[in-house]
């Protein structure tokens, strides 16, 4: 997913992500006598009789909407599983009674619990029957398993329909022109996509993957499933019925052996890792070595971020403005970091000290206790950023995302770990297909966090085995911000524009963005402050050819990447810079006003402003575009200008596109269809680029 409008950053959603897609396939075999399919509801989870209490029984923090108790969850969905040899097309054939199934998650590992939750339903069977495989897309060819990867935006959703990084090798392979049209003729498949319908290219890669697998001869078991984070009940609203249909398709011709029993419902799988607690504090401080500098083999990265000194942390909105927006500058001297306009910086945030203390108290953990992490199964890597040994304090403060809003899979595992009858009953309800409306009312709508849920279920929280911490709680993901400065104008410096996210729901405590509030709390005037960061390419690329004009539309914090572009282009002698900037009021949130006016005076910038709240009739950037239609058309059609747009994805992108279409008709004399085709051609040739967020 990308950031809320309040925040000038890319959100590694979820995403909103989020944002992952899996594809499933089973190799075709000759028809066998049909057998009853094992579907949801065949073996319901045993549970106490439905209760009538509201949940939790008492809480003085808020006025709660009661969650009716009492519907039983469906059983986990079973399937045979297996593995394939690592060889190119054609697909390997299944052997014996074992049906090959693989689940591949395209995107940041651990960032898509919905995809992993969907996969887990197919893996609830004894290992004596099959070998289960859940992995990433990067290292696998399209015939190395029954589950093929596909994805919408990954770690850094750009709204451009690009595959995530760990899928790009597969993506290039699957779209090779020399692949025969019969490459996958022996394979059935199904594609599950997770995305966000606020983006124009919603689940674009999942749709494209589905079409490509058909082109290569695969047979679709089902239409592509498009999970949507914008749905009130989340992606599960679409995924649940789709999975039900999928297993009916798969298990009809491939029934489970009669002697195979399902894993008992309500019993958790073994944890991925074990925490071995140390009796003594380690003498060497391995925790500091993990992020103490840059990788000598290359620039800073997620595994080895650069600890950048924060130089300034300045509020740039007026005192009466509703939102706190910060201009933050870092010193990157000696980091090896290099960037150009359009790139983004990723920052690894931390939980607040008060939340860490509250979490440790709820689970009965000693924050000063040290441990080593060991995987239960061979070949399972430990989290790369986690030092060995590590303290509970560091694990909770820098790794476990206790401020995130938990998903359904969290409640499912928590129910398995609960020994308290009443709490377990409610957790089972929240994790059931029938209980999703209650879960939405309790957790999703008010944006209740992992920490708050654990505090609402105190008996369960106090009994959570430490081994399950990394299974239960996702890791804190880095936040990506558009870089708002150029190295040509500010050598050895990196600046970002951060809107501090804070809003109210029906909960008493305000909701706060983890990274923006953490950054805002840091004060370099009180002593040295270092922030782990690294840089990667972004979604906007600016023309390299000289004398090519650029038109930039950046209302609010969307102007951040355009400041970097203008600084870079001015330093290179480029003067064809047109900026449409919009905000509420000139004296409250007109970012970099003095800088823009100085560049105007020098003839390096044409600035067009829209202050929406300074007159009775609101004026936005799309209105200014229409007013200056002749200028826009002349730059685009006669001088080959590039057009850029950054900002909130809700209404503004569509309004700007409509304004451009009107300009093409009025100034260029094009018909409606011709104007739409002209706009599409600009997008296809990357002369119209957008960076928007939900």
Automatic annotation (TrEMBL):
UniProt lineage: Eukaryota, Metazoa, Chordata, Craniata, Vertebrata
Annotated source species: Tursiops truncatus
Molecular function, one GO term: FMN binding
Binding site for FAD: 447, 479-482, 513-516, 693
Residues reported in the UniProt entry to bind NADP(+): 557, 612-613, 618-622, 655
Biased composition (Low complexity): 14-25, 141-161
EC category name: oxidoreductase
Residues annotated as binding FMN: 194-203, 229
PANTHER family per record: NADPH-DEPENDENT DIFLAVIN OXIDOREDUCTASE 1 (PTHR19384:SF10), NITRIC OXIDE SYNTHASE-RELATED (PTHR19384)
Gene Ontology terms describing biological process: iron-sulfur cluster assembly
Assembly and binders: Interacts with CIAPIN1; as part of the cytosolic iron-sulfur (Fe-S) protein assembly (CIA) machinery.
GO cellular component, one term: perinuclear region of cytoplasm
Annotated stretches, region: Disordered: 1-92, 104-162
Biased composition (Pro residues): 33-51
Protein name as annotated: NADPH-dependent diflavin oxidoreductase 1
Domain FAD-binding FR-type: 303-543
Keywords: Cytoplasm, FAD, Flavoprotein, FMN, NADP, Oxidoreductase
InterPro entries: CysJ-like_FAD-binding (IPR003097), FAD-bd_FR_type (IPR017927), Flavodoxin/NO_synth (IPR008254), Flavoprotein-like_sf (IPR029039), FNR_nucleotide-bd (IPR039261), NADPH_Cyt_P450_Rdtase_alpha (IPR023173), NDOR1 (IPR028879), OxRdtase_FAD/NAD-bd (IPR001433)
Location in or out of the cell: Cytoplasm, Perinuclear region
E.C. number(s) listed in UniProt: 1.18.1.-
Family as reported in the entry's similarity comment: In the C-terminal section; belongs to the flavoprotein pyridine nucleotide cytochrome reductase family. Belongs to the NADPH-dependent diflavin oxidoreductase NDOR1 family.
């Amino acid at each position: 997913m990308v950031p809320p409008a309040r925040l000038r950053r890319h959100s590694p959603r979820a995403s909103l992500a989020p944002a992952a897609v899996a594809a499933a396939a089973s190799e075709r075999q000759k028809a066998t006598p049909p057998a009853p399919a094992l579907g949801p509801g065949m073996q319901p989870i045993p549970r106490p009789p439905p209760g009538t209490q509201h949940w939790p029984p008492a809480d003085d923090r808020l006025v709660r909407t009661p969650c009716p108790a009492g519907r039983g969850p469906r059983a986990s969905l079973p399937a045979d599983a297996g593995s394939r040899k690592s060889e190119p097309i054609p697909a390997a054939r299944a052997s014996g009674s074992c049906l090959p199934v693989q689940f591949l998650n395209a995107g940041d590992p651990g960032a898509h619990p919905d995809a992993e939750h969907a996969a887990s339903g197919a893996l609830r069977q004894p290992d004596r029957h099959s070998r289960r495989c859940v992995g990433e897309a990067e290292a696998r060819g399209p015939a190395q398993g029954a589950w093929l990867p596909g994805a919408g935006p990954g770690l850094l959703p750009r709204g451009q329909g690009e595959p995530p990084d760990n899928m790009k090798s597969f993506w290039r392979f699957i779209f090779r022109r020399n692949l025969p049209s019969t490459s996958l003729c022996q394979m059935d498949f199904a594609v599950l996509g997770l995305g966000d319908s606020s983006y124009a290219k919603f689940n674009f890669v999942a749709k494209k993957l589905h079409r490509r697998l058909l082109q290569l001869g695969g047979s679709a078991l089902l239409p592509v499933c498009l999970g949507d984070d914008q749905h009130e009940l989340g992606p599960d609203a679409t995924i649940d019925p789709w999975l039900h249909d999928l297993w009916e398709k798969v298990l009809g011709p491939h029934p489970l052996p009669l002697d195979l029993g399902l894993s008992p419902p309500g019993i958790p799988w073994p944890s991925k890792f074990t925490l071995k607690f140390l009796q003594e504090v380690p003498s060497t401080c391995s925790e500091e070595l993990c992020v103490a500098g840059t990788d000598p083999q290359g620039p800073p990265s997620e595994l080895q971020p650069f600890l950048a000194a924060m130089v300034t942390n300045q509020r740039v909105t007026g005192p009466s403005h509703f939102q706190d927006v910060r201009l933050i500058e870092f010193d990157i001297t000696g980091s090896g970091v290099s960037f150009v306009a359009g790139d983004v910086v990723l920052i690894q945030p931390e939980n607040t000290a008060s939340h860490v203390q509250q979490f440790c108290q709820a689970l009965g953990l000693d924050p000063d206790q040290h441990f080593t992490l060991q995987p239960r199964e061979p070949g399972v890597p430990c989290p790369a950023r986690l030092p060995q040994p590590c303290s509970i304090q560091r694990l909770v403060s820098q790794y476990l995302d206790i401020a995130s809003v938990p998903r359904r899979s969290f409640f499912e595992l928590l129910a398995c770990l609960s020994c308290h009858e009443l709490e377990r009953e409610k957790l089972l309800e929240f994790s059931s297909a029938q209980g999703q409306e209650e879960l939405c009312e309790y957790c999703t709508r008010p944006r209740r966090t992992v920490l708050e849920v654990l505090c609402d279920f105190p008996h369960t929280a106090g009994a959570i085995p430490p081994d399950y911490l990394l299974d239960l709680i996702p890791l804190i993901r880095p936040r990506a911000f558009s870089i708002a400065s150029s190295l040509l104008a500010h050598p050895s410096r990196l600046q970002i524009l951060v809107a501090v996210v804070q809003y109210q729901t029906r909960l008493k405590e305000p909701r706060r963005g983890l990274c923006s509030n953490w950054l805002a709390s840091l004060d370099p005037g009180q002593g040295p402050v270092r922030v782990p960061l690294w840089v990667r390419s972004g979604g906007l690329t600016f023309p390299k050819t000289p004398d090519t004009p650029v038109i930039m539309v950046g209302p609010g914090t969307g102007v951040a990447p355009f400041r970097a572009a203008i600084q870079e282009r001015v330093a290179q002698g480029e003067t064809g810079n047109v900026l449409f900037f919009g905000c509420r009021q000139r004296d409250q949130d007109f970012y970099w006003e003095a800088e823009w006016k100085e560049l105007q005076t020098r003839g390096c910038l044409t600035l067009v402003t829209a202050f929406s709240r300074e007159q009775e009739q609101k004026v936005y950037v799309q209105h200014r575009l229409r007013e200056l239609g002749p200028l826009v058309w002349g730059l685009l059609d006669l001088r080959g200008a590039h057009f850029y747009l950054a900002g909130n994805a809700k209404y503004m992108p569509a309004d700007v596109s409509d304004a451009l279409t009107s300009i093409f008709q009025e100034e260029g004399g094009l018909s409606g269809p011709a104007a739409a085709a002209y706009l599409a051609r600009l997008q296809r040739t990357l002369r119209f680029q957008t960076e928007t967020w939900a």
